[in-house]
Design brief:
With 591 residues, the chain is α+β, with helices and mostly antiparallel strands. The chain is built from 21 helices and 21 strands. Strand 4 and strand 5 (130-134) form a beta hairpin. The chain is elongated.
Length: 591
């Protein structure tokens, strides 16, 4: 042992000598960077006008009025400066004096403007000086650079780790506006940040998506909230308004009614809350001209709207406190993005914030890598799939998070033709750091997605955490692993210890680490000229690894492990393989 210690001292002294020599030949300089936080005055003005748009309310009832005069009136009523981009309007052959006819019930200024401008195929952008009205093509070219710090949403600052987040953003936030599909928007990671070039409207959407991913990540597992989190501010329905539609009863009694009469009936029943997109109805004539006969009693207003719009071959959705009736094609222009928390489903009801559950998952999914530093183990909400792909575990009661299986279930059973895989406009993805699904769809499909998840939850049997922990502790004492250790110098990569040194280390290890555990003949440390083969129970292996690492010149290499062979002490039991009872890995569709 003295010889071993002497070798260690000589080795360390040699390393110190190399460091000292390099220091003598190198002039060390410290780069001092002055960091001054400059307030973004422009962004403050943009945020102020955006809030005014969202929180101020107006109603519109105009007939053949010039657009510029209507906008002037809105500006005076709200205090928001509004200007028209004449050059942009020329691109689509419109003039500022274009006549407008529209009726919108009292709602937020943002919604009223969107409904009115959509009739003219125009859009608006919030700028530091107020609102700019222009053609969508002209607005799309007005892009701005903004940096988002997303270190808290990533496992590491490695740019590759940001790929899932990038994919999620570009598939759920105005997909056609990104350069991959020919748009002007760009996005790139850099050291835990995202550099995004986009329109100001899409920047608002990106920020809201990131904020909602953080909210989903931070939800308490003890009282887990499963309601979806809204990303699109414009399509955010009033909770009280939707509750009203789901609670109030309605009665429908139509006999051989024309489409016009049916729409008139809807206007009568919901006049102060209804907006009919007549422009869309003119552009896309009704597919069915047959008279409508329908009788409904004791149904909710929501059910009545579903039934009537289905008869009309139309659809409906809500914007704030406004019911919009339009064609299914037009409703795709009003898709919204929502974040669905699903930790309770992918973790089978386990409270992943419980320290005992965290310890169990950490040790079973990745029992050794966390000690030698070759793999990072992340525990925010335990959603990452990467550490759960190769380690054996003997618990068939639970599987690793399988987001892809849940996505496949939804896209197969909920309006299959509406998803992008089959040419539809809807997209769905997951983000493991927040244990959530992110869905861009129409409100009609969102309601079906919520129903599907609710039914899955109703039939899900949560795992008995107490029984699982007991089984885990028993498993730790039963499972046997064979592990190989190689003494390698971290500087030169050459072996520093001979077989005699390794034998001394092996003997000392068996005396100090769980001595009684080495009594069975099948538990041993075999010494070779190049390393140590250690066979023992899993919990002992961890203690052995901790002890060997104290020498600092003994390291483990994943390629040198003997297959992570796991065996039962009962020879009649079949060796387990895979992750949480399954060999299936969970690919990330955005990677």
């Amino acid at each position: 042992m003295r010889a071993l210690l002497a070798m260690a001292v000589v080795f360390i002294a040699g390393v110190d000598g190399l460091v000292a020599q390099e220091a003598a030949n190198t002039t060390s300089k410290t780069i001092v960077v002055e960091r001054t936080a400059q307030p973004d005055v422009n962004q403050a003005d943009i945020d102020r006008y955006a809030k005014m748009l969202e929180h101020s309310e107006i109603d519109l009832d105009v007939a053949d009025a010039p657009l510029n005069e209507v906008l002037q009136s809105i500006s005076e009523r709200t205090g928001i400066p509004i200007r028209i981009d004449g050059t942009g309007l020329k691109e689509i052959d419109l003039r500022p004096e274009e006549k407008v006819s529209i009726t919108v019930p009292k709602t937020s200024t943002e919604i009223a403007l969107r409904l009115m401008l959509d009739q003219l195929k125009l859009g608006f952008e919030v700028e530091p000086t107020g609102l700019l009205i222009s053609a969508p093509g002209a607005l799309e070219k007005k892009i701005h650079l903004q940096t988002y710090n997303v270190k808290d949403l990533l496992e590491t600052n490695d740019d590759l780790e940001a790929n899932p987040l990038l994919g999620l953003i570009t598939t759920t936030i105005d997909p056609n506006s990104w350069d991959e599909l020919g748009g002007p928007g760009t996005i790139a990671p850099y050291h835990g940040c995202l550099q995004v070039t986009q329109s100001r409207l899409n920047h608002r959407r990106v920020k809201r998506l990131l904020d909602q991913l953080r909210r989903a990540r931070d939800l308490s597992s003890e009282e887990y909230q499963t309601e979806s989190l809204q990303v699109s501010p414009l399509t955010k329905p009033s909770a009280a308004f939707r509750a009203q539609l789901q609670a109030n009863l309605a009665r429908v009694d139509l006999h051989n009614a024309s489409h016009e009469d049916t729409l008139a009936s809807l206007t009568k029943d919901y006049g102060d809350q209804l907006f009919i997109n007549w422009q869309a109805l003119v552009d896309e004539p009704f597919l069915v001209k047959a008279p409508i006969s329908i009788q409904l009693q004791n149904v909710t207003q929501e059910q009545a709207l579903d039934a009537l719009t289905d008869q009309l071959r139309l659809t409906w959705f809500t914007l704030g406190n406004v019911i919009v009736i339009t064609t299914p094609e037009d409703s795709e222009n009003y898709q919204d993005t929502r974040v669905y928390p699903i930790r309770d489903l992918v973790w089978h009801g386990l409270n992943t914030n419980d320290p005992q559950i965290q310890e169990m998952l950490k040790h079973q999914a990745n029992p050794y890598d966390q000690l030698d530093g070759s793999t990072q183990v992340w525990f925010g909400c335990l959603g990452t799939s990467s550490p759960y792909q190769s380690m054996p575990l003997g618990f068939p009661e639970i599987q690793a998070p399988n987001y892809s299986a849940l996505i496949d279930n939804i896209t197969t059973t909920v309006e299959p033709d509406s998803w992008d895989e089959l040419g539809g406009p809807g997209t769905i993805g997951f983000y493991y750091m927040s244990d959530c699904l992110v869905v861009k769809q129409t409100q009609k499909v969102h309601r079906q997605v919520a129903t599907a998840l609710a039914q899955i939850r109703a039939n899900e049997r949560p795992v008995d955490a107490e029984a699982l922990l007991k089984k885990f502790h028993a498993f730790e004492k039963e499972e046997i692993d064979l592990f190989y250790y190689s003494p390698v110098c971290p500087i030169t990569g050459k072996q520093q210890l001979d077989k005699d040194d390794l034998q001394k280390i092996a003997n000392r290890t068996m005396r100090l680490i769980e001595p009684e555990s080495w009594q069975p003949q099948e538990h041993f440390i075999d010494v070779t000229a190049r390393g140590l083969s250690v066979r023992n129970r899993r919990y002992v292996q961890r203690e052995v690894l901790r002890y060997l690492k104290t020498f600092e010149i003994l390291t483990t290499k994943p390629s040198q492990r003997v297959g992570f062979q796991t065996e039962r002490s009962d020879a009649n039991k079949t060796p387990k393989s895979g992750v949480f009872g399954s060999n299936r890995t969970t690919p990330n569709p955005h990677r």
